[in-house]
Specification:
With about 180 residues, the chain is mainly α. The chain has one domain. The protein contains 4 helices and 3 strands. It has a 3-stranded antiparallel sheet with strand order 1-2-3. Helix 1 crosses helix 3 (about 95-115).
């Protein structure tokens, strides 16, 4: 039981940190900028990087607008899935555990907006890239860590499964040329 509590403590510490940071930044934007209003500390940044108060009823990159109810259900299911599978992930797979914490925090951060407001507050605008927020970033970084980590694990497993050289030394450099 103690192990499960410490497992969840790590996951929830990451997720709660993300949710708090996400909600504070969104609150600051809503309090200081009118809808669609943009701000940048220096005018020369405005075409490239700015803070803008934007409402998103879809998902990442502004896709599937007006699907709030579906995305609420999906966020809840994803969060439950993370909570269910997290204790099954080996402690040695720290990257995966960290990625799951980022993804849970991002999902819950945006879920709070969807339930409270009916849309997600996005505010980071970089060039022509779609406007996003801390929760979106957390989910994206979590997915990237997950993909890279799984790729690294796959490479390690392939390396372990490779047959030893035929000379019996285990050193591929010592294998005679005619046996390579």
């Amino acid at each position: 039981m103690k192990t499960k509590i410490s497992d969840y403590a790590y996951l929830l510490s990451i997720a709660v940190s993300i949710v708090i940071f996400d909600q504070i930044t969104k609150w600051l934007v809503r309090q200081n900028l009118a809808f669609e209003e943009a701000w940048a500390p220096w005018n020369w940044l405005l075409p490239y990087a700015r803070i803008v108060n934007w409402h998103n009823t879809g998902i990442a990159f502004g896709m599937f607008q007006n699907g709030n109810t579906v995305f609420i259900i999906l966020s809840i299911l994803i969060s439950i899935g993370i909570l269910y599978y997290y204790p099954k992930v080996a402690h040695e797979e720290g990257f995966l555990r960290f990625a799951m914490g980022l993804q849970l925090g991002g999902a819950v951060g945006n879920l709070i907006d969807r339930i409270r407001q009916g849309y997600v507050t996005d505010f980071v605008s970089l060039g022509i890239f779609p406007v996003f927020n801390v929760a979106d970033s957390s989910i994206s970084i979590g997915v990237a860590i997950l993909l890279v980590g799984v790729w690294i694990m796959d490479m390690r497993n392939k390396k372990i499964q490779q047959p030893a050289p035929e000379d019996g030394t285990g050193d591929p450099e010592k294998v005679p040329e005619d046996q390579k």
